[in-house]
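Interim report, section 4.2 (structural modelling).
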Amino acid sequence: MADTFSFRLDKTDGAARVGEITMPHGLVRTPAFMPVGTRAAMKAVHWQDVRASGADIALSNTYHLMLRPGAERVAALGGLHTFMSWPHPILTDSGGYQVMSLAEMRKLDDSGVTFRSHVDGAVVALSPERAIEIQLLLGSDIAMQLDECIRLPAQRAEIERAMRLSLRWAERCKRAFEGAAGGRALFGIVQGGDDPALRLENVRALVDISFDGYAVGGLAVGEPQHVMLSVVEETAPALPADKPRYLMGVGTPDDILGAVGRGIDMFDCVLPTRNGRHGLAFTRLGPINLRNARHADDPRPLDAQSRCPAARDYSRAYLHHLTKANETLGAMLLSVVNLYYYQDLMQDMRAAIAQGRFEDFCRETREGWTRGDLPPV
Amino acid sequence: MADTFSFRLDKTDGAARVGEITMPHGLVRTPAFMPVGTRAAMKAVHWQDVRASGADIALSNTYHLMLRPGAERVAALGGLHTFMSWPHPILTDSGGYQVMSLAEMRKLDDSGVTFRSHVDGAVVALSPERAIEIQLLLGSDIAMQLDECIRLPAQRAEIERAMRLSLRWAERCKRAFEGAAGGRALFGIVQGGDDPALRLENVRALVDISFDGYAVGGLAVGEPQHVMLSVVEETAPALPADKPRYLMGVGTPDDILGAVGRGIDMFDCVLPTRNGRHGLAFTRLGPINLRNARHADDPRPLDAQSRCPAARDYSRAYLHHLTKANETLGAMLLSVVNLYYYQDLMQDMRAAIAQGRFEDFCRETREGWTRGDLPPV
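Predicted structure of the assembly:
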């Protein structure tokens, strides 16, 4: 186990970066995609398949875990790595985003946020200090500061208020995190909505506090892709080059190409598993909706060239049948297909950046997607 | 691929038998447990885990497959083995049982049964000839005759009527099956409810027609265990010793011990996967209900000595959390645990019969179950 958290930047190609993060439970190759195991489980995917897909790190959600099974319980059971049998790196969010989007009877002030638990109806308080305490109990490799994430579009005054509140919470999280066991990292979160001046002001203030890495938050909250990428393009260059940069909650394969091209190193998103559950497979030839009747008699696999057994070993006709019949196996197979696709995309991006051909890679990849699947049999 | 279906009886111990069936897609060690993939899928279990658990043969349901995706479609896609990527032996039922228990607007007469499809509302007819045609299209290694299965208790006249109808259908199925590709087998089904005289009369008539194997049907339909075992005890000895004997839809581990001890060779049941989805694990120490709060803080695995990774690699606390949170992974892990448990029980029975210690084995196994799990931590 490494007792220091460190980021090594190996090569840049334009704004795109390839590197490696060392953390207590292992190495994370960047650009990295972190699949999301909200309640200490990937939905419908065995942990060994998460690993086999190529994931170096998984994300889990503080909000859900603090309510059930509870952070103190997870700590008594040996921490989150032991609890969910994932001995590799873990990033936990702060709980803030889910409190804002999911919790009932939410009340927010400078001290933090209180809300009603959806599990047992209890009133729960989450302060910056408690968010850090919970993440230390869970034992994640990377903890996130508590922040307030608002939906876009929003008024500038509202964006600024949330940004300043998040900044005060960033300072308190940093203090609360001091003295954490060796090698654990705390990331600050840049807020500021779609306002470049607020974003840059927030970057400077967070860098003054000094974090182990920096996330761009408050995106993928309803804005169009060009707004998101424009904010990333203005924010990322202002962040320290020697720290990892994490774009929270993003996104589609195309979003990730765009954000890596603008200097982002880390991503998380539920899309691969959620879309898999809904019958949608990501492939080299674009997304394929297995619910579509055109697949009912198609004996071909999703992608005979895929590294993923589920994409090679089952016919489209079978996957169509499973999704139409709402068989859990359909969700299981397509979720695995999508996790492999995302990780293959990350691996191919890393190779392309290392070879100085990231721009060509993006063009070729997008051409593949627009080819729109193989012709029908 | 074997082009003959054959049963080799290796040893008997009391009425218990150990042997091996050779069929087109492989060997089946008996006594055998056949997990159920109703709609060409095991619920929440990957096919590679079905195989790894030790299953030699899987069962799939004609009723569901004839309605969706359709037998002609499966045939055009290369048959059921190819369709569901299970290259090992498959038994299909005739569809009769599910028509009786699931279908709406059911109308039964000598010609067969008509009903309304739950998939698209179409009126569908299932005759003995069509039941065989469908199973030949699916390409199963073992096909079952169409029969009428009634619930118990029932009046003797009603039992006799259904038995005689099933017998007429048995003759028609046998004729329809003649000329089937080499190595495929057709089993007759003994009906007769809980009436020993009707059962024995039916056995004699079916043996006169001559089948590749004989099923005891019409049990596990609501009667107490002692009634079921008593019918098996009276019926099995009358069946030809050189053909496999299959007790349909049975059962709990204890049911299987009892029926193997009375001369049965084959079983199928949804219990391992259904109970897994409901949070119940079968173990050497009896069933364990993971939903119970006593497991919430228990760091121990379900059974550290199990051959099943899921029983060794995850804590009871984690499995409890998954079942309480209704995470699909909980159903996935416990279904696999239970499939392994059933197959381990079959393997241990086969070894005990071969060693002439089946009675001791049954006593030891039941003692293990009544020990009622490890003491709490």
